[in-house]
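Same chain as my last thread, 330 residues:
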Amino acid sequence: MTFAQPLWLLLLPLLAFSYWLTVGRKQSSSDKPAMRLSQTPDHARTWRARVRHGIPFLRWAALFLLAIAMARPQQKWQEEKVKADAIDIMLAMDISPSMLSRDFDPDRLSVAQKVAIQFVEKRPYDRIGLTAFSAEAFTQCPLTTDRRVVQSFIQNLQVGRLEDGTAIGMGLATAVNRLKDSASKSKIVILLTDGENNAGYIDPMQAADIAHTLGIRVYTVGIGTEGIVMSPAQRNPDGSYIYAPREMQFDTELLQQMASATGGKFYRAYSEDDLEGIYAEIDKLEKTRVEVTTIQRTKDFFHWLLAAAAVLLLLEMLGRWGIFRSVLPA
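reply #2:
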């Protein structure tokens, strides 16, 4: 609640002081005992006297309401109409066992999940989906504008749900399949992996050519360091992994060719800071055009105060010049 012309509220203390001078002092002096003779019956004098004390208050209450009405109390709120040329984004994330390698803290997958969740948070108007792949690929989350749902699916990604291996072509093809029927003007895939293509029946470049034909840009992200890394070497019966130093290899040329064929870009992430910078750059490159129209609305309440003041003044006039005329001073 606000006031359009709050300076009128300065009348309130002046009215309060005037009320005390004209009514309050008079009533306090009239409370002093005095000998009075009256021809009026006691019962009439009693109830009329009670009402008589309240009638002057009606006029002052009306003046107070008028002063507040002049200040124009009103309620304000804003409505925003958003028009966005949204982008459809599919995240394709590698969940092969090598994503548990410990050259990141605590491992590659955990860092990739964290940064991807942050990226999704910054895209409030876009539809985002998630595919996961190792030796196979599947859609973890279809395209949706519900960021919380996408973030939940990213957080729940786990290694070991699919057969071991890295099917980069399958991962991209599955993501492209989710975008092929999209009516969005801009469609992209962000594919993150840490190894070489060694599984799947779809060639990565074939999947990239299909993406290019459908107007889908592919940003490829290679995560992890090359050389000797503590990585899963064997799986226990309970599903946990035994770690050992392993030689990690990476097919940089393949990811560069895939990105180039679709008009996208290849990135290399050797640390968490690198990965955050990569997602930040993609966020800038694929900026959603948003038009926001703000409409400010107000609702005035002064007319209710004027009506209440009019009623009080009417009651005061009826009381003063009507039934109580004989007992009230002019």
